[in-house]
Design brief:
It comes from Sorghum bicolor. By secondary structure, this protein is of the alpha+beta class. It contains seven helices and six strands, in the order H-E-H-E-E-H-E-E-E-H-H-H-H. The protein has a domain of about 90 residues: RRM (RNA recognition motif) domain (Alpha-Beta Plaits), CATH 3.30.70.
């Protein structure tokens, strides 16, 4: 029982820090969070394989000595803009409860939009498709198309004749 209690207390002192810009370093995380208390551990996560190997994953964990320090850091740093992005900061123990409440969040979002969940999915998809079509249309009109122009057979005969001429 005591081991579970110690693990729970440890999680109460540990913060999840997400939505980090990829230019943020470990030392900058420590500098940002050290004014709120003594940091006992910091885990900055990196991609370990694949095409992004060696790049930051965009989140980290910061652990304080007390719950109060962690709570203060959470209150002060959650939503703070860093490199133009709002940081997401919450207790690591809250992470699993936030994931399980995603259905609650979907219901809340559905109430805000005023539609049913299924219908809003289709309108979101339709809006995305329309946006892509508009983007393609504007690229084609602006001459920024990445397609190569088709060769006209009439133009090829002129090129062939020129290539056979001796200079």
């Amino acid at each position: 029982m005591d081991i579970k209690r110690l693990e729970a207390d440890k999680l109460d002192c540990r913060l999840y820090v997400g939505n980090l810009d990829f230019r943020i370093s470990e030392s900058e995380i420590i500098k940002m969070f050290s004014p709120f208390g003594k940091i006992t551990a910091e885990d900055f996560l990196w991609h370990t394989r694949g095409p992004k190997r060696g790049e930051p994953r965009g989140y980290a964990f910061v652990q304080y000595t007390t719950k109060e320090e962690a709570q203060l850091a959470k209150e002060k740093m959650n939503g703070k803009l860093v490199c133009g992005r709002p940081m997401v900061v919450h207790l690591a123990s809250e992470k699993s409860s936030l994931d399980s409440s995603s259905s609650h969040r979907a219901v809340k979002d559905k109430k805000l939009t005023g539609g049913s969940g299924g219908k809003s999915q289709y309108t979101d998809r339709a809006a995305k498709i329309a946006a892509i079509k508009n983007k393609l249309k504007s690229l084609e009109e602006g001459g920024c198309s990445t397609k190569k122009p088709r060769l006209n057979p009439d133009n090829l005969t002129g090129i062939r004749e020129q290539s056979h001429k001796k200079f």
